[in-house]
Amino acid sequence: MTRSPTPRGRRDGSAGTAGSATLELVVLAPALLALLLLVVAAGRVAATRGQVDGAARDAARTASLERTASSAEAAARDTAAASLTAQHVTCRSMTVRVVGSFAAPAGAPAAVRVTVGCTVALGDVGLPGLPGAKTLTADYTAVLDTYSGR
Predict the structure, then answer these.
(1) Which residues, including other chains, have CB under 8 Å from residue 16's CB and lie 6 or more apart?
(2) Is 101 contained in some domain?
(3) Has residue 2 been placed in a domain?
(4) Is 60 domain-assigned?
(5) Does 15 reside within a domain?
(6) Tens-digit pLDDT string for the chain (150 aa)
(7) HSE (side-chain half, CA atoms, 13 Å) at 76
(8) Which of 41, 43, 44, 110 has the fewest CB atoms in 10 Å of its CB?
(9) What global pTM score does this model have?
């Protein structure tokens, strides 16, 4: 007994699917790569946001130990820069703003608020449509010593 040939020479009678896996990989590879690059960019922004928060906290604590607004601003700027450098964060531009009530008399409650801004580069991620840089800001408030002379 002889069998008649099946369509396209396959014994089970199904159509050939020999190249479909390769085609699917070619179509899905750019989408998966873009997703991976998006995760890298989001991770970099999230990590840097935490580091900028830490720099703002450190700068506010340092500024709260100073007696004048001008010395507090200089100390906060130096501390924020040192904190970000120690954490290997490179800012295209960094801003430090200090607002405090250093003129309050001794015995009166007072605080200092430090805002740190850092513009980080994202251009090296290589994802089309991603901005080249993102500015992250953080602020922190520290209490001034109530009974020290200001």
Answers:
(1) 8, 10
(2) yes
(3) no
(4) yes
(5) no
(6) 566 555 555 565 555 566 677 878 888 888 898 899 889 888 888 999 999 999 999 999 999 999 889 999 999 999 999 999 999 999 999 999 999 988 888 788 899 999 999 999 887 777 777 788 899 999 999 999 877 655
(7) 34
(8) 43
(9) 0.75
